Amino acid sequence: SAKAGERLGEGNAGFSKNGFILAAIGSSVGLGNMWKFPYITGENGGAAFFLLFIVCLVVVGLPILLAEMTIGRGGRGNASSSLFNLTNKKHWKWFGLISIITAFLIMSYYSVVAGWTLHYMIQSFAGALSDVNMDYAATFLGFAGGYMPIFWSAVVMVITGYVIAKGVSGGIEKFNKILIPGFLILLLIMMVRALTLPGALAGAEFFLKPDFSKLNEESVLIALGHSFFSLSLGMGCMLTYGSYVQKDQSLGKATLAIGAGDLLYAFIAGLVIFPTVFAYGMEPSSGVGLAFIALPAAFAQMPLGFLFGGIFFLLLAIAALTSAVSILEVPVAYAMEQWKWTRKKAAIVLAGVAFLLGVPSALSVEGADGPLSNLVVFGKTIFDLFDFSTSYILMPIGGLIITLFTGYAWKRAGEEAGLTGGIYTTWMFLLRYVCPLLIILIFLYSVGVLKF
Ligand code: PFF
Fold this sequence. Notes:
The chain has helices at 2-8, 17-28, 31-43, 47-75, 81-87, 90-125, 136-144, 148-165, 168-195, 200-208, 217-230, 237-242, 251-279, 288-301, 305-338, 343-362, 382-409, 413-417, 421-446. By secondary structure, it is mainly α. 57% of the residues are buried.
């Protein structure tokens, strides 16, 4: 579209309709779906938590997702200037800036975990993870505690920076158009493999049979926080992507498609991970260890495990890279507009700085005996501090800014979103009252003011 193209400056068009949906699904489907979701589900009562997550996604996630895309398309700017363009009020610019900083911080440690997936993919395909007698916990902690992860996070930054430098239609859209459909095919192959393993049913049952007795107030906050992270909200990501969307694309439909895509991938990921883990007698709820310790140990016992393990980590890598691309675009869009940098310069410089910022995270994985693993700041390792402060503090703040902006400050959101009647009223009700209240609860709980 001409308008979206214009704002890019460099002869680069905005998203096509399908391209946008795929790119937004690429952003939302990430390590969150493939790795975080299964283990928090495992710890919080399986299907009971999944149902709770769907409720949070519908009540809080989708309204904010729609709000972000609407602000982006209406404001036609970056995550900070869009808010200003729509209200002409300076303070909104500063509020918007918070989300750009959040994106940058997330980029730094997200690329570290993305790098682990590349290493594990190659190791698996090469047959180096096929020994049933290997100690997979020691292997992972040895790897994560060394210097190799720095190399791999640099590889992630180079790939991400390259895609971003190629622009919106020629880079982001193309990348997602190839990877996201391929991703679904591989994921379905993995699901069939996992569900046909002897003993797989116990895993599927664990994931699908609700145990409501395990749900508590904390589960609700975890589900809420995860609906944010999973839909890439509260950090300007969907807003920035939205600024490249054509005027005649339905944002309401896009919201439903992205939400459904995110859920579907999380659901299938659960049907890959739990049956595999259960079939080989591993523990289902073990945090980081689920993807990098329990699963490799399970794949080692599986016939052709090097291949299926390799595909599994390839899936994690694709999920991580298509999300990383969307995160880097947030500060890049800002630098291009605010500092008049070229897209290429912004991509190279910002990927480089985010890489450097990620080095302390790479060296500080808990339990891994890395050079910085024993350094504790505010009761957490540096890695955990980045994860915690972005996921549970900065992203909720970013989300709160979006809800308040759309609910109270910008009067024409309904028009831009194309909503009328009861749907519009419901959207506004959620944005004005329900979302802010719940976000404030997550925030108070995260910072320890609220205790259960
Ligand atoms: N949604 C991604 C995931 O679930 O892994 C993570 C993410 C991507 C968070 C982009 C934030 C973001 F802007």
